Amino acid sequence: MKKILAGLVIGGLLIKSYYDTNVWKINRLSIGTDRLKDETFRLVQLTDIHNKIFFNQYTRLLQKIINFHPDLIVLTGDLIDRKTKDFSGILAFVEQLVKSHQHVYFVSGNHEWDHPRGEEFINSLRQRNVKLLDNKREIVKLKRCQICLVGVADAATGNDQLTESLFIKEGYRILLSHSPEIINRKAAKLADLILCGHTHGGQIRLPFLGAIISPDQGLFPSLDKGIFQHEKGKYLYIDSGLGTTRLPIRFLNQSQLSFLTIYGTNR
Hints:
- Strand 10 and strand 11 form a beta hairpin.
- It is globular, with a radius of gyration of 19 Å.
- The strands form four sheets. The protein has a six-stranded mixed sheet, covered by helices on one side. A six-stranded mixed sheet has the order 6-7-8-9-15-14, with no helix packed on it. Strands 10-11 form a two-stranded antiparallel ribbon.
- Helix content is 22%, strand content 28%.
- With 267 residues, it is an alpha/beta fold.
């Protein structure tokens, strides 16, 4: 009887891990800000795909994004893994993403920098009209509001060059950074919203304890996933990502992308 129960428990854990690793979900989040009046805009964040193959689910993923009607789509690094040999799958998805939307932005992650063909991959994104924001900014004027979109190259590999001059005073200011460690840079405090990835939410989590380990933060990281207020009315959001690295498993930490709605509270 004990063996049967043990087998059922192990089997349940394996099924849960398989589900969390291979079945993605949408994390929906709404953030209010007094930097805007009655304006509202939507954005989609995808991060840490690591060239994950979702059993031909890229078409479904694309359709969900289109149905959300986002104003912006941001890719916050590690679209590939440092061991990725074939870029064709992820590039085909990105190509369809750009065809569906004119505002698709990308900042690099550590795996793009660590990959021996990383420059080739970045050039492939550029050729597909993805807007590269490594250490750059773009002012996006929507019908409802103005957004100062600032991006930095991966901070975990020391390639970020964030300065206060990248931000403007007007509009809502978003900072794209692969690593949440960017919060330690003085200039990052100017951002109304910082969007990051990199941590995978720990990839494997335990009940009550949360993430076991995270890159750059070590054991039981404090910045693992979710939303954190770094100043009054200003937030850091860490998406736990779609893919995996090192160990090809997730547990209590389902693969995800994020749909964010930013709405004004300054009436």
